[in-house]
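Handout, section B. The chain below has 280 residues.
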Amino acid sequence: MDTPNPTPGEPDQAGLRNQTAMSADGVAISYDVVGDGKPSLVFVHGMACNRTFWDAQVNHFASRYQVVAIDLAGHGESGTDRCGWTIRAFSDDVIAVVCDLDIKDVVFVGHSLGALVVLEAAQRLEDRTAAVVLVDEISDVKDCYSKLETTLGPIILKARYRWAMGQLIRRTMFTRQANPQLIEQITTSMLETRPEVVVSLLGQNGGYIDFYNNHKLEALKAISSPLVLVNPSKANTPVEANRVHLPSLIVEEIPDTGHFLMIEQPTALNKAITRAIELC
């Protein structure tokens, strides 16, 4: 296992610039851009995370490519004045950044929630998409959340947000071998995101659960460029069953890691992303 700096922090890559783009609804979207070269890599974080979770990837790839790391609305340093926290609205954030930079050949890399966001963005920017890499979000492409999960989850989070979110992170997102300091630092960082953003995202039409259950397979099928799933090996991704629906799907599995592959196993994830870039 890699032993990365357990604190998501500022990239140390020289030349990194922080910029702002305006999303379709007028929310300011903060992003970092560094490096030059094609394709451009656009990294999108998961729910309640922020762009610094990709620091190891930014530092690794910036010497060869243009690398962009985005704070979705309501996360990190981006604006919060939004009415509907939907996958469509988040994809507007990504599209705003891509158009702000006017980049053409894009490898989209999304983690968790960010994987669904880049799926939607890649569909809408088909002529600019070179490849799509989805990190620990989709294992079985036919999988859905149960009615119990979709009903109780938002209710519990709304009632006891910090406790419920803390339990969710600590108990489900790490292996037993994970660094306790890393667990607490990631948990603390994620709990800084406004509760109303997370609760609303999970509880409304067009949000995370709705898109995952009802639109994910359709979105996956709409991707004509190389499509790569990178999952922990413990996810037991049903590769052949998935290929019934997506014949050209590529699956990479990384052992000895939990949900945050980019922090826990940055070297292995960087190699998987490199292989995806080579497919472009």
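Note. Confidence is low (pLDDT under 50) at residues 3-11. Compare this with the example in section A.
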